[in-house]
User: What shape does this take?
Amino acid sequence: MADDLQKTISRLNGETARISWQELERHYARGVLMNVDPELDLVMVAAHMVRDDKTAIEAYLDAGQLRPTTDEDARDWGDRDPTLWAAVVAPWVLVQERNG
Assistant: This one.
């Protein structure tokens, strides 16, 4: 089981990339963009989703650490053009703002 998790994490690491807000806007318009709190490991959150770990996902949602991207987020990112990282866990696109 741990070996499977490591394979999932390794695959997701290779699929996670820096991305601009302009590239994410269409996903936001489709309603599939989810914010991941900067305190969390984006790849680990994605791995929990790939593995359908309902307990972990519900904990993130309940704590507000994983949430749908809001209109306010979209406007803010459009204005500031911050460093964003994304991972796709179909149908969702997970996005995380990072410094630098």
In short: The longest helix spans residues 2-15.
